[in-house]
Specification:
Blueprint (H helix, E strand, L loop, with lengths): L15 H16 L4 E3 H17 L4 H14 L4 E3 H15 L21 H19 L6 H15 L3 H10 L3 H4 L3 H19 L24 E2 L2 E2 L1 H11 L12
Antiparallel strand pairs: 1-2, 3-4
Helix pairs in contact: 1-4, 1-5, 2-3, 2-5, 2-6, 3-4, 5-6, 5-9, 6-7, 6-9, 9-10
The chain binds flavin-adenine dinucleotide (FAD).
Organism: Cinara cedri
Protein name: Sulfhydryl oxidase
Family: Belongs to the quiescin-sulfhydryl oxidase (QSOX) family.
């Protein structure tokens, strides 16, 4: 077993396969389980799709797939999960939107009960904040990126405990996030608070202990005398979750 602080360095590699598996599960499982989606939940779903369209690092077919789903819902005031599921399945067959085989790679645990989708969601959310910060488009600002992530977590993340904890944390977004870079750092800090709370919990994969991320082994300059150097942390996260660093397979 790896003791805390001696984690393998490759724990900080992002795989497209995890991102695609997460995106698919988020739509094809979490969303379609709802009977009727309307009101705030529908707005949250529409916004989530917009965020994916702008920032998910996908192929042209993947983008087309997301756009088709978004357009399908654009004039509706209520959609049923089942109907949406059928629509999504039809266009998955038609457009073949995924580049990878949708296997868990970076998020695979030492046992199927560990990691996977929740790990994939964090990975997806960090990727979206970093992509937004890099692309600097007008469609969303930093606060809106986080509010969209929060909307998805609130209405669709099947882990109710996770959702409730996360929503408590989101009250600090308004006063602390005014740029895309702030959003990257806010999510990093929120994730570290969750890591700290869950260290030693039964849900922790013993092969992937919860740590304050990144370790010195990941980023030598991110900590100085036990204090975070946020400029270095930001630069590190922007490298780790950038399109150029995302791998398709471990052999890339
Ligand atoms: P994860 O914590 O899922 O991290 C995935 C990867 O992200 C890591 O391997 C690492 O490469 C990277 N990473 C780690 N920390 C950071 C950071 N600070 N910044 C950037 N990158 C980082 N489980 C509960 O039991 N209770 C909860 O209340 C709870 N709340 C959650 C809230 C949200 C929004 C999400 C998405 C998940 C939540 N979970 C909760 C699940 C939990 O946080 C883990 O996702 C799960 O235990 C799997 O952990 P993991 O070892 O795969 O690493």
């Amino acid at each position: 077993l790896f003791s805390r602080g001696e984690m393998p360095k490759d724990n900080a590699i992002v795989y497209l396969s995890d991102l695609e598996a997460t995106m698919r599960y988020s739509l094809d499982h979490e969303v379609i389980l709802r009977n009727a989606i309307s009101g705030d939940a529908l707005s949250a779903l529409k916004s989530y799709l917009e965020l994916l369209i702008e920032y998910f690092p996908t192929s042209i077919r993947g983008k087309k797939f997301l756009k088709v789903i978004s357009e399908h819902m654009s004039n509706s005031e209520s959609v049923s999960g089942e109907e949406l599921g059928n629509f999504i399945n039809k266009y998955e067959l038609f457009l073949n939107p995924y580049v990878t085989k949708l296997k868990w790679i970076g998020c695979e645990g030492s046992h199927p009960m560990y990691r996977r989708y929740p790990c994939g969601l964090w990975t997806l959310f960090h990727t979206l904040t970093v992509q937004a910060s890099t692309k600097n488009l007008q469609a969303f600002n930093g606060e809106q990126v986080l509010n969209t992530i929060a909307g998805y977590v609130k209405h669709f993340f099947g882990c109710t405990e996770c959702s409730e904890h996360f929503m408590q944390m989101t009250t600090t977004i308004k006063n602390n996030v005014s740029s895309f870079d702030d959003a990257v750092l806010w999510l990093w800090s929120a994730h570290n608070q969750v890591n700290q709370r869950l260290a030693g919990d039964v849900s922790e994969d013993p092969m992937h202990p919860k740590i304050l991320f990144p370790l010195k082994a990941h980023c030598e300059t991110c900590r100085q005398n036990d204090e975070w150097n946020k400029t270095e942390v930001l630069a590190y996260l922007k490298r780790m979750y950038s399109t150029i660093s995302i791998k398709q397979t471990p052999n890339d």
